[in-house]
Specification:
This protein is mainly alpha-helical. The chain has one domain: lambda repressor-like DNA-binding domains (434 Repressor (Amino-terminal Domain), Orthogonal Bundle), CATH 1.10.260.40. 57% of the residues lie in helices and 0% in strands. It has 5 helices and no strands.
């Protein structure tokens, strides 16, 4: 009978031991954010040029914001996108123990 250390553990625990959970969560959050911005633009009938103009930024900066793989986006840029879509940005920190 083999003693597999991962039997009974969760996938998150496996990723945490592999030191990749944080990176995966960051990418997942960015994908959700990019999707929400895209949906907001569709709801308001905005193309990228119009959205960039509302944000007072370039289309290149908007493309970086909407790139689900690019996690290097400032809170200021996200806040401007939210404002351009008549939304507000809401962030919070939670204890790791309360993730369940």
């Amino acid at each position: 009978m083999s003693k597999n250390p991962y039997i009974g553990s969760s996938f998150d625990e496996f990723l945490e031991e592999d030191d990749s959970l944080s990176e995966i969560n960051t990418i997942a959050l960015k994908r959700v954010l990019a999707w929400q911005i895209e949906q907001g633009m569709k709801e308001r009938g905005l193309n990228k040029t119009q959205m960039a103009s509302r944000m007072k930024t370039s289309r290149a900066a908007l493309n970086r914001l909407m790139d689900p793989e690019n996690t290097s986006v400032s809170l200021n840029t996200i806040e401007r996108a939210a404002k351009a879509l008549d939304k507000k940005l809401q962030l919070n920190l939670v204890d790791r123990n309360n993730e369940d």
